[in-house]
Amino acid sequence: MNPDSKQAQRKAAMTVLAHSAAADIAGRLAAIAVPSHENLREPENGLVMLRGRIGGDGAPFNLGEATVSRAAVRLVTGEVGFGYTLGRDAHKAQIIALCDAMVQSAELSGEVEAKVIAPLRTAMNAERARKAAETAATRVDFYTMVRGEG
Amino acid sequence: MYVAVKGGERAIENAHRLLAHERRGDRDVPEVTLAQISEQLALGVDRVMTEGSLYDRELAALAIKQARGDMIEAIFLVRAFRATLPRFGATEPVNTGEMQVRRRISSTFKDVPGGQILGPTFDYTHRLLDPQLAEGFVPEQPATAEASQAATPRVTDILGRDGLIESSPQAESDASVGDLTREPLNFPADRDLRLQNLARGDEGFLLALGYSTQRGYGRKHPFAGEIRFGEVEVEFAAEDVGFAVPLGSIELTECQMVNQFKGSTSEAPCFTRGYGLAFGQSERKTMSMALVDRALRARELGEEAAAPAQDEEFVMSHSDNVQSTGFVEHLKLPHYVDFQSELGLLRKLRQEFAEVNAAVEMQEAAE
Fold first, then answer.
1. What are phi and psi of A78, to 5 degrees?
2. DSSP state of B308
3. A14, burial (CB in 10 Å: exposed 0-12, middle 13-18, buried 19+)
4. Per-residue pLDDT tens over the stretch A27-63
5. Chain A (43-102) residues lying within 8 Å, Cβ to Cβ, of chain B
6. Distance CA A70, CA B88 (A)
7. How many whole angstroms separate alpha carbon B20 and alpha carbon B14?
8. Which one of B99, B177, B231, B285 has the largest count of C-beta atoms within 10 Å of its C-beta?
9. What does the alpha-carbon distance between residue A61 and residue B177 come to, in Å, rounded to a whole number?
10. Are strands A60-75 and A37-53 parallel, antiparallel or unpaired?
11. Is the bond into B188 cis (omega within 30 degrees of 0)?
12. pLDDT, chain B, mean
């Protein structure tokens, strides 16, 4: 796999993991024989400054901060994984880092995708679809308004 | 003196203990949970996050609980909390054009591409108190419909294609982004700093200023070009990772105000804009912010700046409710020594006044 598509795969996995609850990730991880690993960066809380753009598409400005957690782990086989997520759940950052490390491992990548990322992605997409369907029901349809006697 | 200090300490301690008791209220009534506040008083949480300038629903809910529902006190608590954590850096600017829209309306185009999507709104409710809600009300499940795959472009982007509206100012390469939490405010302030100030500014203050522009104090003939609320993805370019890392999504409200056009002999006339952006569903806040943002552009657009909403030093120096409440409420703190010296001076002046009057009376009597 070329480096770009590996990076795209890691990023796609991170998106799913950041959107998932820590308990759900941990639950899925239980189905995998997680290799031994060590913390390269102890899980920690901090802040990021969230930026918007003037007019939505112009020069950036600082909107306000958000809490964020981060961690880094190294598998015994050498892969280094990073975990970043909004919020103050440092454990979540750590298990995201662990998943990211496994996504980079030639032996584990397929298994972590199949048993962790894919089911969490399905759940994330289902949640998005549910919201989109609820939202769509509030769309104004000017063309179906009843006029006159109908 | 010693006794007085000890007495004060015990009184303060007991006052805080009494506060904790009053905060809890009747102990036979179940305690409110953070999840209840976050889920059921969601717009209050949104306001505390926006003006506290910290996106964290749980912390904002805790602040509201601790502050007994006093929003400015809650905002103060959140601001104080943010000083306890290190900042890892700044995110990539969010792309509101790719928002997963929950609500999106335009008052300028009926048939806006992507449609008018009402979402969860108080608009069109009758504002009658609903006794059903008092207890045990179970709402219907929301209606669903097939979601459209059509894009929901920003209304300003549509107007911009025909050049009917001014384009947003672009950043000069390597220009730094102003941050009023790091550098003291200087005037005149650039628009990035003004928007940061307005984003964390008091909703009531901005609402009043926005209203004042509508009533003629700096009138700019605004239209709500678009208001959208929904989720946007956040990415952070983490140095250790080597690419922009997804952090998850946040809820934002954005308001694009379309205003009175300008033109000159060298430039064709076009609409001007004001911009509002805030955490959560904060519609009134972003509309007010957009009105005031436009008003504050008077100097840049060569307009006469005579109204309060157009005075950036006045607006930016008084928009922050934590600063405002700090200075107003500090009047409660002991000013005994100050007051004693004022009292001493007043007594002296009154004595002098009495002596002069007595002398005048004696002189008049003598004549």
1. 105, -20
2. G
3. buried
4. 999 999 999 999 999 999 999 999 999 999 999 999 9
5. 45-68, 70, 72, 82, 84-88
6. 10
7. 10
8. B285
9. 6
10. antiparallel
11. yes
12. 93
Name the DSSP class of B140: P
Question: pLDDT higher for B362 or B246?
Answer: B246
pLDDT greater than 50 at residue A130 = yes
3-state helix, strand, coil in chain A (%, to 5): 50, 25, 25
3-class secondary structure, B204: helix
Over residues B257-283, the pLDDT tens digits come to 999 877 777 778 899 999 999 999 999
- DSSP per-residue letters across B183-199: S---SS--HHHHHHHHH
Q: Which residue has the higher pLDDT, A108 or B172?
A: A108
Bigger pLDDT: A110 vs B367 = A110
Report d(CA B294, CA B257) in Å as an integer.
8
DSSP, residue by residue, B141-168: PPP--PPP------HHHHHHHTT-BPPP
Pairing of strands A80-86, A60-75: antiparallel
Residue B86 pLDDT more than 60? yes
To which residue do tokens 């990021």 refer? A48
Q: Summarize pLDDT for A100-109 with one digit per residue, the tens.
A: 999 999 999 9
Residue A47: enclosing H or E segment and its boundaries? strand A37-53
Rg of chain A on CA atoms, in Å: 20
Tell me the pLDDT band of A92, cut-offs 50, 70 and 90.
very high
Q: Does B190 touch chain A (CB under 8 A)?
A: no
> Cα separation of B224 and B323, whole Å?
30
For residue B333, give the 3-state DSSP assignment: coil
Considering CB atoms only, which of A61, A70, A139 is closest to B117?
A139
Q: Would you call A51 and B279 a contact, using CB atoms and an 8 Å cutoff?
A: no
Strands (E), chain B: 54-55, 87-90, 100-105, 223-237, 244-262, 270-279
H or E stretch covering A48: strand A37-53
Closest CA to A89 of A45, A131, A133, A149: A45
CA angle B341, B343, B348 (to 5 degrees): 95
Record: contact B157-A82, CB cut-off 8 A = no
Q: Exposure pattern of B278-310 as b/e (b: 16+ CB <10 Å)?
A: bbbbbbbbbbbbbbbbbbbbbeeeebebebebb
Facing residue for A54 by CB, picked from B58, B86, B169 = B169
- Using CA atoms, how far apart are residues A108 and A75, in angstroms rounded to an integer? 11
Nearest residue to B227 via CA among B159, B156, B296, B150: B156
Burial B13-24 (b: 16+ CB within 10 A, else e): eeeeeeeeeeee
ipTM higher than threshold 0.85: yes
* Pick from B273, B291, B250, B316: nearest CA to B60: B250
pLDDT digits (tens, 9 = 90+) for B218-236: 888 899 999 999 999 999 9
